[in-house]
Sequence to fold (291 residues):
Amino acid sequence: MKKVLTYISLFVFGAALFSSCNLNESPKFNDKDAFVAFDKAAVSVKEEGKTVVIPVTLASLKGVSTSVSYEAVDGTAKNGVDYKLADETGILTFTPEARTQYITVNIIERDGIFTGDIKFSLKFKSTGDVAEGAENSCTITILDHDHPLSAILGKYSASALSYYNGPSTWDLEIMKDEKDVTMVWFAGIIPYFATSFAYPSADTRFYGIADLEAGTISIPIGQSCAYKYNGTYEISLYGVDFPNVVQSGNIVLKVNTTDGVVITSEDLGIYITDETGAWDLVLPVVTFTKK
Fold:
């Protein structure tokens, strides 16, 4: 009984304390809390002589007038070589009527020179009478269009005869590697793992080594993708010379760029499996046609 009385007393005390608070009160934002921030922390732009426009917004209640200075900071991209600020004064002026201003950057095309994707940043030097917001810098990635394998990179329509499902068509993408210019990644190499199908957010890519002079892409047999089924079982790639599974060597794709880009696997099919059993199996001939 003593315990019950104690709980009742605590409840009454808590209710009185709660009732003393005004539920309608909330933290108030005023212009003393005004801050300036980049709208995005990171953006990408193609190299082809493009202009990128970066919004910067001053958040305030009634609006304030102030000037903010900014600067470009080189990374792998260099000022004057890979990009140039359109306004070299580096000053943005905000008013109550103009709370968003823009930094314009001209991207310098270096046609025929392979640099890989390169980056630089914009950041505030001084924010004057207002504070910096959380997004106090913006990293800009310039996407190089001179990749040695650019002819075969991109999205494809695929077709093959599936052992389980009969004639099959699906979409896949051949993607570059960020470090190795001879390597490509296949996203959706078979129907079950097509990026628009079963696991669109999982890394189910497999890699190949491209030799455009020889007109081939060699996909090592036995490799595993980053995704693990149930977080445990590795998903591995093998070849198939039906009915036999090939567990070593390469699946060699032939690349034909005479009329568009058509990539075929004629000798071996593609077999994806894990320890729990087969995921999918497509038989030769597999054909990838660039969109």
In short: Residues 271 and 281 are 4 Å apart (CA to CA). The chain has a mean pLDDT of 86. Residues 154-290 form a domain with the Lipocalin fold (CATH 2.40.128). Helices lie at 2-19.
